[in-house]
Amino acid sequence: MKKPFTLLAVALLCVSCTPAGNTTPAPEESASTKPTSSAPVPLGATSGPQAPGGTVPATTGVTWDQASKDKAVEVAEKAMTDFARPAVEEKQWANDLARWLTPQATADYSAVDPANIPVSRVTGPATLSVDDANGFGVMAAVPTNAGTYTLQLLRTGKDAPWKVNRFTPPSS
């Protein structure tokens, strides 16, 4: 008879040592106190929303004007000119190019050996492929002695500088 009593005493001791759970019910949220998100939906590679049912953010305040286009062309041409220098020492090449690049592109291209780049000069003016619904990005085609490179340029706002995010060589 001592054994069941000992087991019961141990069980009661264990139960009395555990903390009591919170028995207070959580307050109900009214519709006016529920948090809302004002952040834009991130876009995928095809410029569509990544989340099902998401919407593409508006480009409020960022519209295309001739000055924006001229500046994008200028940055594309200057960036491609700095990119197309295979004879330049690696560190100098990376430092000169970095002024035209997004932070991600700076990291991506910092390990490139310019001696492996097949292009050595720009042969004509850049042309833009403008999406009027997207004032934050543009694609620029820049003719070179190795074919036409495509550059992806991005900006964070209407008055923000254009930065190159990617150099894509000709597809041949």
How many H/I helical runs? Answer: 4
Average pLDDT level = 78
Task: Summarize the amount of helix as a percent range.
Answer: 25-40%
Unreliable spans: 4-18, 29-57
Derived structural class = alpha+beta
Give a description of the structure:
- The chain is an alpha+beta fold and about 170 residues long.
- Helices cover about 30% and strands about 15% of the residues.
- The chain has four helices and four strands; from the N terminus they run H-H-H-H-E-E-E-E.
- A four-stranded antiparallel β-sheet has the order 1-2-3-4.
- A hairpin with a 2-residue loop joins strand 2 (about 135-145) and strand 3.
- It is globular, with a radius of gyration of 29 Å.
Features:
172 residues, alpha+beta, four-stranded antiparallel beta sheet, 29% helix
SSE arrangement:
Layout: H1 2-17, H2 66-83, H3 90-98, H4 103-109, E1 127-129, E2 137-144, E3 147-154, E4 163-168
Antiparallel strand pairs: 1-2, 2-3, 3-4
Summarize the structure.
The protein is an alpha+beta fold and 172 residues long. Helix content is 29%, strand content 15%.
